[in-house]
Design a protein that fits this description.
heterodimer, A: 565 residues, 47% helix, disordered C terminus, B: 131 residues, alpha/beta, 5 strands, 41% helix
Chain lengths: 565, 131
């Protein structure tokens, strides 16, 4: 007798189960690769160890995601990002970084324990779209199109629940769609049903919906059968004959009567594109996301009490994200709202790790959607459970340390190479750091310059077009302006003309940055135009030579070498 | 003259699980003929004999990395013109651009959806001359 040829979806389900079985081995390899980082006297070259850990994490991130092990993939990707950042900084990881790596490796093992399925066979049958949920809610029934499957689906429906019926092979994560179920019911007589049910529960958890209980209906009450259900993560084991009212009780006992409310996230970002990208990161899990482009409206928006987590850029125009956070947390009623900051880049995360501040609230730009989602989810879950990784007071203290790092270069214990600016005439260090306004429509350039100057003890103000630049200059009176030449919404030369025509700003020196060069060399005609008609004090070509920029800033602000070295 | 159809795909990835799922996706779902290689060296050795229409190349592999393999393939007369698509989990825009600068015609993001990847490869194939 010939068997039916398995469909691609069935083969895929089998491959997924096989990958799940192999996950512990892959994790063991990664742990072994990372172990030298935790040894007192590592025998191997740190760079080789980091390369190896990165390779393992990279493969896990890609492979686990392909097979639908989302939490494993997200955690591996986060580990890869951390290790990549360490490799790029070309310094051995400090204790904070090692702690972060160790934690992520542990998290990976935990994630795999949750998601890994024992390998079982797979059954067959079709699936159908979920029917609209009646008051009782929706229940996923994993069952074959046979007498047993039909009877089970009928009984769940008779219990007052809408039924979303899935075949075993349809519980591939990519195919699991529909509203949030209250429970997943499987019949153990169907081969592969327990595995498929567990996959569905994991997928619901991965999408941050909730812990959806898995209920196993079985023909017998044997020890082995119960043990298989336990291993698959079933919360209840109901032996046939099962009537509708028993099923209803089991489902209601195990699931909350209230439907799971999606997490509510507020994105504070004035860059429309970046805001949309961040919002997109939460599309998959189905969170409720709102975007706020004007940070001044933040307290009013929070007063509506529909925000569980804030995602905030560290450099919203006209405001610092750290200051905004402190403002939010001044209100006692908002102190439980976690804030994820979009940091300028991996270099920033490295810097704060190096001064002993965890970077678990900082997602570097350009934003990796998976990293943002994973990090947000961790805080959202803790927040809803009433568990906070750190106290509010500790977080504020960390922000103070970061603000200090940005403006003064941190304390000496950190070893971060920053010095306070000094006037060149040998007087004592100036009490207030010089302030430089950086204007460019490319945020990456603004952030790169800001980090560079902050590392030399210079406070940086930011604006992203000529109009904003003019307003910030008028209100803040910076010691120097560094501005791009060609920008939308008010170009550099227009801003310069307005600055020079305004009594309060006409004496502020301006350095113009421009990509207008002749074969990478200075365009002297343009230079004459800028230094002459536009009265800029200096002109630097893009791509930016940061050492030259720092030297130029030091020269114009009359800072000594210790500040600009 | 009608556009030649995509038929033969050389897929290179050091991970057995990914090779298996890609082969399943491209053969069973897409109906292509697929040759799987577990390393750059193996791909270079077998590419000429297999004669792929397109090559799907993992970026981060032990031994020769994807970009290194691409360089070697470009030096071989049999594969000098064969379109290469990188497959990678690193999909920041600048990284995609950097990979294309190396001569890849496109980049497929990992994780790929096994039920959709054939369509994606076909789409890349049909757009290969419109760049």
């Amino acid at each position: 007798m010939f068997g039916r040829r398995p469909s691609p979806a069935e083969k895929l389900a089998a491959l997924r189960a096989s990958y799940g079985s192999a996950l512990p081995g892959k994790l063991a390899e990664l742990q072994a690769a990372a172990q030298p980082l935790f040894d007192a006297s590592p025998a191997e070259e740190t760079r080789d160890v980091l390369d190896s850990v990165r390779g393992h994490a990279h493969k896990l991130a890609g492979g686990a995601a392909t097979f639908g092990y989302g939490v494993v993939s997200d955690t591996a990707r986060e580990l890869e990002n951390v290790v990549t950042s360490l490799i790029e900084q070309e310094e051995p990881p400090d204790s904070a970084s090692r702690t972060t790596i160790r934690k992520l490796v542990t998290d990976l093992a935990e994630a795999a324990r949750h998601e890994c399925n024992p390998s079982e066979g797979s059954g067959t049958s079709g699936s159908q779209d979920p029917t609209p949920a009646p008051d009782g809610g929706l229940v996923i029934v994993v069952a074959s199109e046979d007498e047993i499957g039909n009877a089970l689906a009928d009984r769940v429906e008779a219990s007052g629940f809408a039924v979303h019926r899935l075949s075993v092979d349809a519980v591939v994560p990519q195919l699991l769609t529909g509203p949030e179920p209250r429970a997943i019911v499987v019949h153990s007589a169907l081969a592969g049903a327990l595995t498929a049910g567990r996959s569905a529960a994991n997928e619901c958890r991965r999408r941050s919906r909730a812990d959806v209980p898995l209920i196993c209906v079985a023909e017998t009450d044997e020890f082995e059968s119960r043990m298989r259900a336990v291993r698959a993560g079933a919360r209840a084991y109901v032996t046939e004959p099962v009537d509708a009212s028993s099923l209803k009780r089991a489902i209601e006992d195990l699931s909350s009567a209230a439907p799971f409310a999606p997490y509510r996230i507020l994105i504070v970002e004035d860059d429309e594109q970046l805001a949309a990208q961040c919002a997109g990161a939460f599309d998959g899990p189905g969170y409720a996301v709102r975007i706020l482009s004007d940070p001044r409206e933040l307290p009013d928006r929070l007063a509506t009490r529909d925000t569980e987590l804030i995602v905030m850029d560290m450099s919203v125009a006209g405001a610092s994200g750290l200051d905004l956070a402190r403002l939010v947390w001044q209100y006692e009623e908002f102190q439980k709202i976690p804030i994820i900051f979009l940091s300028p880049g991996p270099e920033f995360n490295r810097q704060i790790l190096s001064v002993g501040v965890s970077d678990d609230l900082f997602v570097p730009r350009p934003v990796d959607s998976h990293a943002l989602c994973t990090r947000a989810l961790r805080h959202l879950r803790s927040s809803r459970d009433g568990r906070y990784p750190r106290s509010h007071r500790d977080v504020v203290r960390e922000l103070d340390r970061i603000a200090s790092l940005l403006t003064h270069g941190g304390d000496n214990r950190s070893g971060v190479g920053v010095q306070h600016a000094r006037p060149s005439d040998g007087r004592a260090a100036i009490a207030v750091a010089p302030r430089v306004l950086v204007v460019d429509d490319d945020r990456h350039i603004v952030d790169a310059i800001a980090i560079t100057l902050a590392a030399h003890g210079i406070e940086v103000l930011r604006a992203f077009n000529g109009e904003q630049g003019y307003k910030v200059a008028l209100g803040e009176h910076p010691d120097l302006i560094i501005s791009d030449y060609a920008m939308p919404n008010g170009s550099g030369d227009q801003m310069l003309r307005r600055l020079k025509a305004t009594a309060d700003t006409k004496d502020i020196p301006v350095v113009i940055l421009t990509g207008h060069t002749l074969d990478g060399r200075k365009d002297y005609a343009l230079e004459r135009e800028m230094l002459g008609r536009l009265a800029a004090v200096s002109y630097l070509a893009k791509p930016i030579d940061f050492a030259a920029l720092v030297a130029e800033v030091g020269r114009i602000l009359n800072l000594d070498d210790s500040a600009s070295a | 003259m009608s556009e030649p159809a995509l038929n033969r795909i050389l897929h290179v990835d050091d991970e057995a699980d990914i090779r298996e799922v890609a082969k399943l996706a491209l053969e069973d779902v897409g109906g292509f003929t697929v040759e799987s290689c577990s390393s750059g060296a193996e791909a270079i050795e077998r590419a000429a004999a297999f004669g792929p229409d397109i090559i799907l190349l993992d970026v981060m592999m032990p031994g020769q990395s994807g970009p290194e393999v691409l360089k070697s393939l470009r030096r071989m007369p049999e594969t000098a013109e064969t379109p290469v698509v990188f497959m990678t989990a690193k999909v920041q825009a600048r990284e995609i651009e950097a990979l294309k600068q190396l001569g890849a015609i496109d980049v497929i993001e990992k994780p790929f959806d096994p039920m959709q990847v054939s369509e994606l490869v076909n789409d890349i194939w049909s757009r290969r001359n419109v760049r």
